[in-house]
Design brief:
Length: about 400
Amino acid sequence: MRKDLRPSRLSPRDVLRVGAVGLRARRARVVLSALGIAIGIATMVAVVGLSESSRADLMARLDRLGTNLLTAEAGKDAMGEEVRLPKNAVAMVERIGPVQHATATADIDVRIRRSDVVPEERTAGVTAQAVRRDLLSALGGEVRRGVWLDRAGERLPTTVLGAVAADRLGITRVGETIMMNGTRVAVVGILEPLELVPNLDRVAMVGFPAAERHFGFDGHPTTVFERSTDASVEDVRAILARTISPGKETGIKVSRPSDALAAKAATDEGLTNLMLGLGAVALLVGGVGIANTMVISVLERRQEIGLRRALGATRGAIRLQFLTESLLLSALGGVTGALLGAAATYGFARFQGWTAVVPPQSLVGGLAATLLIGVVAGLYPAIRASRLHPTVALNAA
């Protein structure tokens, strides 16, 4: 035998062709095995895509609503005593240089009923607040029906209802009346939901002058709202309580409503990590399915392996054949899963009215994960196939 003779090597094209033959011969098993990989990748791509789409929508809402709104509410001081905001709290806040707009609301002790035939204890969970005329523009709110309080409306027994308050009272159009204590009050407007201050959605709002005249309001606000330049929000936040109530600033609670929406993004991120974990479990199950398929394939094809070895195929060629089959199988599931995940993201985002975002790194990462699983799942079966002795494999039943 000549020593310079060497076994021929398969070209990459031949390797792919030989690997694909094994998959085409067992189509049902291939589809079921690839399905596990596809489910895992689709889950991971969809979770990442929907999370990014939701976060992008949230950031767009924050940009639209503004992150420069601060609120200051009356609380309790270090001695546990109730702190009252001064009547001129708004004027004091407006003296702060970067402040662009300041307004206020106040809780008033009023029982609200749909009509005078409804018992007084049935208030439908709606409260009342006195508000300044400039509140709506400061909060960036919109009127769904009717009008906002004007110069005349803030002095008359008229009210504007929050979105939830209108639903609870069964008010669907302006011009209807409700009872506030013993006073019949006309509904002149219904607001759209206020995302930055959702507690006002459950409130019936009347003007400061009307609250003083009809409901015994003493003129002390309970919440001050202010907007400043974006660059100075934290500086204003640091001195807001001290400006409103010098010496009793510990009893003033200052908050930033947009922080609640930003916290939602953090909550969504935690849920995303959980769903990614579930997707990883599905991917692992798919990898086990591929490994099982390849092991069974080796057992069923021992005679084929023996014949190829007898015809001159090297152990390396046999290993490469079965490893290629495993990679093709996992790639089939990965590509299918990535397409399904992207389609699910676009479909759900469009249904929710979001801008669909599918990060390219999620697709690339998903496909890379499938190829890695294909290598791991196919390595043992490939090595086992390459170690079969031609004589033993040909004599296998």
